[in-house]
Amino acid sequence: MGLIDLLYPPVCEICGEKLAYPAYLVCDDCLDQVAFKGYSLDTFSIHGDVALDGAWCLTDFVPVMQQLIHLLKYNRRTRVVERLCDFWTSEISRCLDGVAYDRVAPIPLHPRKARERGYNQVAGLARWLGVYQNIPLSLDLLARTRYTTTQTQLNAEKRHSNVSGAFRLNAPVEGMNILLVDDVLTTGSTANACAAVLKATGARRIDLLTLATPSQMDA
Q1: Which residue, among 46, 156, 170, has the nearest Cα to 106 in the 3D structure?
Q2: pTM of this prediction exceeds 0.90
Q3: Mean pLDDT to the nearest integer, 155-171
Q4: Residue 84 neighbours by CB under 8 Å, 6+ apart
Q5: Predicted pLDDT of residue 145
Q6: What gap in Å lies between CA 169 and CA 80, rounded to an integer?
Q7: Taking a C-beta distance cutoff of 8 angstroms, is the pair 208, 180 a contact?
Q8: Helix axes 123-132, 79-87, angle to 10 degrees
């Protein structure tokens, strides 16, 4: 521990309690409040054809998870992803067991959004999967060609039209199994638009892994 850490002890980004290790960002007690689910979603609230073959969400969009994702997206706490994945390494491995993926790729941001935010918040999840799940990483497999408004307040039909035709492929994927990653799955429209492009150019299977979803909380 350095001098700065001695003078200003690192604290949990959620509860404010002192951390044993500065790099953790979040204490184990807070993470214990987030129940790992790792459930498979077999149905999607998508308007139109479904191109995704499967999807897994690591957990529900509970308050602690909402705070963590807010830190990830808007406060430049990109190491939150690594902290979560390290905490759930074995559980994530079990989710992905059974499919040999040829590529892992993040849902891309439009260049304008990337400049505004300064980073793609899900690139870290793709990198972690590349290293610890031994899946070849392709950060630029897809590109977003059209700036789209936020999906937050849109219904399923408007979400579909908002992202339709908004993505292009940058590399061949014929015959490949592709794992897409995102932070939150609501209806799946954005990931499905990416999957449609991949399927149209010959990809065999397209799955999605996300950190959280609000869709199962009342189920």
Answers
A1: 170
A2: no
A3: 67
A4: 31, 58, 68, 211
A5: 87
A6: 28
A7: yes
A8: 40
Question: What are the phi and psi torsion angles at 211 (to 5°)?
Answer: -70, -40
The reply to whether CATH 1.10.357 applies to domain 35-213 is no
Computed on alpha carbons and rounded to an integer, the radius of gyration of the chain in Å comes to: 18
In the chain, the DSSP E strands lie at 39-41, 54-60, 103-106, 142-144, 167-169, 177-184, 205-213
Beta-sheet pairing, 39-41 with 54-60: antiparallel
Q: What is the pLDDT of residues 20-67, one digit of tens each?
A: 776 678 998 999 999 888 878 766 666 678 899 999 889 999 999 999
> Angle CA(175)–CA(179)–CA(181) in degrees, nearest 5?
150
Q: Which residues, in sequence order, are CB contacts of 197 under 8 Å at separation 6+?
A: 142, 167, 168, 169
Distance, CA of 89 to CA of 143 (rounded, Å):
29
Which residues is 41 bridged to in the sheet? 55
CA–CA distances in Å: residue 46 to residues 147, 148, 216: 20, 17, 15
Residue ranges of domains in the chain? 1-33, 35-213
